[in-house]
């Protein structure tokens, strides 16, 4: 199993599929499945029966999971697509993520 370099609240771009080119925030990551949910991307129609929460029922749009290989991080400096690197921080000794395009640290 490879290390997933995308985390919750990261801004990503969808590279393939119906939502190609969509920029959005990662809502949730599923590491065991190598998938993530992105805000406003890969929308599917969900049919729901009337219930107490929604007395009308009907069809609603909601996000579905996307494979990690179809997502690429956004460079915090330029806003373009970038690869993510990992390195040790000299001060704290923890692993930090950085943009390979600009060298900027990803928070």
Kindly describe this structure.
With 107 residues, this protein is an all-beta fold. It folds into two domains: 1-74, Roll (SH3 type barrels); 77-107. The chain contains no helices and eleven strands. It has strands spanning 11-14, 23-30, 35-38, 43-48, 58-63, 65-67, 71-74, 81-82, 84-88, 95-99, 105-106. The strands form three sheets. The chain has a six-stranded antiparallel β-sheet with strand order 6-3-2-1-7-8, with no helix packed on it. The protein is elongated and about 55 Å long. The chain starts with 10 loop residues before the first strand and ends with a strand.
Give me the side-by-side strand order of the main sheet.
6-3-2-1-7-8
Q: Using DSSP, what is the number of strands?
A: 11
How many helical stretches? Answer: 0
The whole-number mean of residue pLDDT values reads: 93
Q: Hey, roughly how much beta strand do the residues contain?
A: over 45%
Radius of gyration, in Å, reads 17 Å
In the CATH hierarchy, the third-tier topology of the largest domain is known as SH3 type barrels
In CATH, the architecture of the largest domain is Roll
Secondary structure: helix percent = under 10%
Q: Which structural class matches the secondary elements?
A: mainly beta
Order of helices and strands: EEEEEEEEEEE
Amino-to-carboxy terminus distance: 24 Å
Write a short abstract of this structure.
The chain is an all-beta fold.
Compile the SSE list and pairings.
Layout: E1 11-14, E2 23-30, E3 35-38, E4 43-48, E5 58-63, E6 65-67, E7 71-74, E8 81-82, E9 84-88, E10 95-99, E11 105-106
Antiparallel strand pairs: 1-2, 1-7, 2-3, 3-6, 4-5, 7-8, 9-10, 10-11
């Amino acid at each position: 199993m490879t290390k997933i370099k995308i985390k919750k609240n990261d801004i990503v771009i969808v590279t393939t599929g119906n939502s190609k080119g969509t920029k959005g925030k990662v809502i949730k990551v599923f590491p065991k499945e190598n998938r993530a949910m992105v805000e406003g991307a890969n929308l599917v129609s969900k049919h729901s029966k009337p219930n107490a929460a929604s007395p009308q029922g009907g069809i609603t749009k909601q996000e579905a999971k996307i494979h990690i290989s179809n997502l690429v991080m956004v460079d915090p400096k330029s806003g373009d697509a970038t690869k993510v690197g990992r390195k040790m921080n000299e001060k704290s000794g923890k692993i930090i993520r950085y943009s390979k395009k600009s060298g900027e640290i990803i928070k």
